[in-house]
Design a protein that fits this description.
The protein is an alpha/beta fold. The protein contains 7 helices and 11 strands. A hairpin with a 2-residue loop joins strand 1 and strand 2. The longest helix has 24 residues.
Length: 339
């Protein structure tokens, strides 16, 4: 494996991952990391799982530093605290010993096409079989309901059973979704996960959406990723938000409206994933003919009927089994509704 791949350089002494890896997770923050979702996920992974850096991209060719200025501290008579932004590739080992790659850093402002080319070459040379693009988006949704995650993929079979609350929408592109589309265009397997954040909490730390994103990552990759710390943080933040809402009748009214909308969407989604066979005109006509024929037969033979006969009871076939026995009936469903 080459020591340098266009804008990417392996760290000294490293020529690739230590273990076999099949998944790449991107935590490249676009749109300002709504709800600090990706930052929370990154902190949970790095604080609880073994990891080390493999290499990084040359950020000077990817960022416009004037538009994404890093903070710096002036202390009395000197400056300190400046940290150089980095786009780093990590190797991480999950709780079951499975290795995967994680790309972490700010969204590049420049050189998108060359960066896509570099990452595609890395995916091919390392043998990555699945790339997962993560994101978080503000949505009119209540904090009193579980956070949803919208899924998308390069091939429909990668997210069977998933339903999206959105239709066809044109929006400004971000680098992560451009990477996902172009990887998909070259026949790579890609899954996208966008965690929903209540729009009124978009600028705050909202760990419930981070928990939902990790849960979706676990389902998409089969990796054992830490989630308990995020669930605990989500409960704490939920209690703090509830305390604030209780003090305002206006917030209570807004929350009730959002809850009604959320519950309505869930109900519609469940109905949409239940397959129901609707009879056509021929089927209805045949049923009517059978019914009329059965009435004629009853009229012709009612004198022969014994006192115990039950002409209105269920019809039986030749094998004696009731035609209207529905004890074994189960409605056919699609996949479980995804959030």
């Amino acid at each position: 494996m080459d020591q340098q791949n266009e804008r990417f350089s392996w760290h000294p002494g490293i020529v690739g991952p230590d273990q076999e890896v099949s998944a790449l997770i991107t935590l490249v923050q676009s749109f300002g990391d709504t709800g600090r979702v990706q930052a929370r996920v990154r902190d949970a992974i790095f604080s609880q799982l073994p990891h080390h850096e493999l290499g990084e991209f040359d950020i000077d060719f990817l960022l416009d530093h004037r538009d994404s200025r890093q903070p710096i501290i002036f202390d009395t008579d000197h400056f300190e605290g400046y940290e150089r932004p980095r786009l780093v590739l990590h190797e991480v080992t999950d709780q079951l010993g499975q290795a995967f790659l994680l790309l972490d850093g700010p969204e590049p402002a420049l050189g998108w096409e060359s960066l896509v080319s570099s990452l595609t070459n890395l995916v091919d040379s390392i043998g990555i079989r699945l790339t997962v693009i993560t994101d978080s988006i503000p949505v009119p949704t209540p904090h009193t309901r579980p956070a949803m995650v919208t899924r998308w993929a390069s091939r429909p079979e990668l997210i069977l059973g998933s339903t999206s609350p959105f239709g066809r929408i044109q929006m400004p592109a971000s680098f992560p979704v451009v990477l996902g589309q172009q990887l998909g265009d070259t026949n790579h397997a890609v899954i996208g996960l966008a965690s929903h954040v209540p729009h009124y909490l978009a600028d705050l730390d909202y760990p419930e959406s981070s928990r939902a994103l990790v849960e979706a990552l676990r389902g998409a990759t089969g990796l054992a990723l830490p989630i308990n710390v995020l669930a605990m943080a989500a409960k704490t933040v939920r209690a703090e938000i509830d305390a604030q809402v209780d003090k305002s009748e206006e917030l209570k009214a807004m929350l009730r409206a959002l809850e009604e909308q959320y519950d309505s969407r869930i109900a519609q989604r469940e109905l949409g994933t239940t397959e129901v066979t609707i009879p056509d005109a021929d089927d209805i006509g045949a049923e009517i003919e059978d019914y009329l024929r059965s009435i004629d037969d009853m009229d012709d033979h009612k004198d022969d009927s014994g006192p115990d006969s039950n002409p209105s009871g269920p019809r039986h076939g030749n094998d004696g089994d009731s035609d209207d026995d529905t004890s074994d009936y189960r409605p056919r469903r699609g996949g479980e509704p995804d959030e």
